[in-house]
From TrEMBL:
Keyword match Membrane: no
Residues where N6-(pyridoxal phosphate)lysine is found: K602
Family the entry assigns: Belongs to the glycogen phosphorylase family.
Biological process, per Gene Ontology: glycogen catabolic process
Name recorded for this polypeptide: Alpha-1,4 glucan phosphorylase
Species classification: Eukaryota, Metazoa, Chordata, Craniata, Vertebrata
Length: 764
């Protein structure tokens, strides 16, 4: 079969024990066996460390995709880096985020198997020698890549795929072969320099930091993986048995490489280097093979997130790849020039090399010219990709551009994390939905079924009680389980607008204070997420959330009508607890900034209602469930563009909206930071004078919309009917559907639903 290689610098796997039991159909048996030993399986599950080898959406998507590819019986491999330290653990000290190293391998990792027999060399630095026999990359430094394999089981189909993560090892002669003969100790200690490549995950989400170590990581995973792919291609019975060397004509029919963002973009010049320099394939033939093999997924349109590497860094680290990129770019620009004679500006816009004070390589442009398919991750995002980010490239090759709306695996995000809801659903429609989530549509027949309404509401209440108990046990915070659980969990970023949520909390607080005897719908506002350690504004946002909580939670006038809780150290295992307990899901990014979002889908399938903008996959969620069954508010992409043309003036909203003015004045005056009245001046200054994400422009619509949320929450029956409608319409957002589309429309393979025989039965 054709093999699929999913290349990603992040795999945000979380815990593995329960997922393995679920997918092997062993959960009940294991629970029972452990219970008979006088133990509690949940206690055991809580001991396992999360594999936090990712930052957020992009890394978690890769993990969901592995689950779906195995469940659909695809011959797929995930390839990445075995970081010794994953995403940092977040501690809140005095209301501020403090990072500590995530030493997740401290007690070993029972799920991985080292495969030293497949260790491979990776080359860095050196120089290029052009000889009559061809091009040689010589005098390089070598680092060894040691593979660690983790099994990826499909759901009850006896398929087990592999995730192979590379770890960096210094060769035994490292720094000893050189002239520093005398200093043996120094040389051995320097092995760390090589092994640092796989030491730590860069903790930036949607932000590019052009560090040499990161470029080394990107080449390291690519070089090791491509050697592995080619070894496997040659050893399989498909390489037409040419005794001298394998012919690579059939390579794209046997191998598909999916690039998860531009991070593994070096796959394109590396495959060219191997084909041309090592395998002596003709340049144009090699380029055809490379393009037919690779496909690129774009994950963001934020300019600060796009990878633009300095040419000077490439020249030093990967001199041959730089030559290849120059040659590919020349070929590409010649083609553009022929089609658009005299259009110099178009050549400048479309070049892989950006001219300027510091020449840079635009990795997204490299991916577009080097791939046969380019996709966005939600319909609105794919449209933005075609009409703005890669507009020129779309005009050149419109057939290249596709949409693949993201999804989530229903095994982890329904069956595993919300067994109560899964049971109530299965009782009504059977278990088919677990591998075909579109079957949830059958629940529409039960929207007015009183017992079903009651059962769904009961499961939600149980999940809320359980989460409230967890918060009390772990963080000593008492919350009111009958309040609305209003949840925003995601990485802290200005574009995700946690600040808009803060302004709502303050407004609610001020309304209670101004009329304490009035009846209010009680809310527990929970906000969680990590800030990149170097992102000052994101860290200030966390401090603001904790400071608001400090004031509101200790005000006797408020009582338990309003609480603001910051959820510390948000991660996969915490998501599995909070999402099933949520009533309201906040998805409030400025329209046109969140490529897709996947948390939005997890909340939808777990019976929360969504308050959100028309951004990312929210658009398709509203389309599936009906816009009237989500709380949609605020500017659309067109409105944001119009406001940009007109010029966004925050001052105008500040002057016109008294509740907004009051909230900002309180933040500004030190009402929430009495010990340090000037604490939030940077935040207020940003909101008033350079807010790229237009928080004030959506404030009024947001507050109004939150009022509608309160109204509906006071009618539990109508609320639950809306919940059921949302669950029933969430089927599209399974990663099984997403992967089927990738398979058919990009990789050219057909997924199989057949269960292969278990290993204890003879095969046909």
């Amino acid at each position: 079969p054709q093999r699929i290689y999913y290349l990603s610098l992040e795999f945000y796997m979380g815990r593995t024990l329960q997922n393995t039991m679920v997918n092997l159909g062993l959960q009940n048996a294991c629970d029972e066996a452990i219970y008979q030993l006088g133990l509690d399986v949940e206690e055991l599950e809580e001991i396992e460390e999360d594999a936090g080898l990712g930052n957020g959406g992009l890394g978690r998507l890769a993990a969901c995709f592995l689950d779906s590819m195995a469940t659909l019986g695809l011959a797929a491999y995930g390839y990445g880096i075995r970081y010794e330290f994953g995403i940092f653990n977040q501690k809140i000290v005095d209301g501020w985020q403090v990072e500590e190293a995530d030493d997740w391998l401290r007690y070993g990792n029972p799920w991985e198997k080292a495969r030293p027999e497949y260790m491979l060399p990776v080359h860095f630095y050196g120089r290029v020698d052009h000889t009559p026999e061809g091009v040689k990359w010589i005098d390089t430094q070598v680092v060894l890549a040691m593979p660690y394999d983790t099994p990826v089981p499909g759901y009850k189909n006896n398929t087990v795929n592999t995730m192979r993560l590379w770890s960096a090892k210094a060769p035994n002669d490292f720094n000893l072969q050189e002239f520093n003969v005398g200093d043996y100790i120094e040389a051995v200690l320097d092995r760390n320099l090589a092994e640092n490549i796989s030491r730590v995950l860069y903790p930036n989400d949607n932000f590019f930091e052009g560090k040499e170590l990161r470029l080394k990581q990107e080449y390291f995973v690519v070089a090791a993986t491509l050697q592995d792919i080619i070894r496997r291609f040659k050893s399989s019975k498909f390489g037409c048995r040419d005794p001298v060397r394998t012919c690579f004509e059939t390579f794209p029919d046997k191998v598909a490489i999916q690039l998860n963002d531009t991070h593994p973009a070096l796959s394109i010049p590396e495959l060219m280097r191997i084909l041309v320099d090592v395998e002596k394939v003709d340049w144009d033939k090699a380029w055809e093979i490379t393009k037919r093999t690779c496909a690129y997924t774009n994950h963001t349109v934020l300019p600060e997130a796009l990878e633009r590497w300095p040419v000077s860094m490439f020249e030093k680290l990967l001199p041959r790849h730089l030559e290849i990129i120059y040659a590919l770019n020349q070929m590409h620009l010649d083609r553009v020039a022929a089609l658009y004679p005299g259009d110099i500006d178009r050549l400048r816009r479309m070049s892989v090399i950006e001219e300027g004070d510091c020449k840079r390589i635009n990795m997204a442009h490299l991916c577009v010219i080097g791939s046969h398919a380019v996709n966005g991750v939600a319909r609105i995002h794919s449209d933005i990709v075609k009409n703005s980010v890669f507009k020129d490239f779309y005009e050149l090759e419109p057939e290249k551009f596709q949409n693949k709306t993201n999804g989530i695996t229903p095994r982890r995000w329904l069956l595993l994390c919300n067994p109560g809801l899964a049971d109530v659903i299965a009782e009504k429609i059977g278990e088919g939905f677990i591998t075909d989530l579109s079957q949830l549509k059958k629940l529409l027949d039960f929207i007015n079924n009183e017992t079903f309404i009651r059962d769904v509401a009961k499961v939600k209440q149980e999940n809320k009680m359980k989460f409230a108990a967890y918060l009390e046990e772990q963080y000593k915070v008492k919350i009111n389980p009958s309040s609305m659980f209003d949840v925003q969990v995601k990485r802290i970023h200005e574009y995700k607008r946690q600040l808009l949520n803060c302004l709502h909390a303050i407004t609610l607080y001020n309304r209670i204070r101004s009329d304490p005897s009035k009846s209010f719908v009680p809310r527990t506002i929970m906000i969680g997420g990590k800030a990149a350690p170097g992102y000052h504004m994101a860290k200030m946002i966390i401090k603001l959330i904790t400071s608001i909580g400090e004031v509101i939670n200790n005000d006797p006038y408020v009582g338990d009508r309003l609480k603001v809780i910051f959820l510390e150290n948000y991660r996969v295992s915490l998501a599995e607890k909070v999402i099933p307990a949520a009533d309201l899901s906040q998805q409030i990014s400025t329209a046109g900034t969140e490529a897709s979002g996947t948390g939005n889908m997890k909340f939808m399938v777990n019976g929360a209602l969504t308050i959100g903008t028309m951004d990312g996959a929210n658009v398709e969620m509203a389309e599936e469930a009906g816009e009237e069954n989500l709380f949609i508010f605020g500017m659309r992409v067109e409105d944001v563009e119009a406001l940009d043309r007109q010029g966004y003036n925050a001052q105008e909203y500040y002057e016109r909206l008294p509740e907004l003015r009051q909230a900002i004045d309180q933040i500004s005056s030190g009402f929430f930071s009495p010990r340090d009245p000037g604490c939030f001046r940077d935040v207020v200054n940003m909101l008033m004078y350079h807010d790229r994400f237009k928080v004030f422009a959506d404030y009024e619509a947001y507050i109004t919309c939150q009022g509608q949320v309160d109204q509906l929450f006071m009618d539990p029956r109508e609320w639950t009917k809306k919940v059921i409608r949302n669950i029933a319409c969430s089927g599209k957002f399974s990663s099984d559907r997403t992967i089927m589309e990738y398979a058919r429309e990009i990789w050219g393979v057909e997924p199989s639903a057949t269960t292969i025989p278990p290993p204890n039965l003879p095969r046909d």
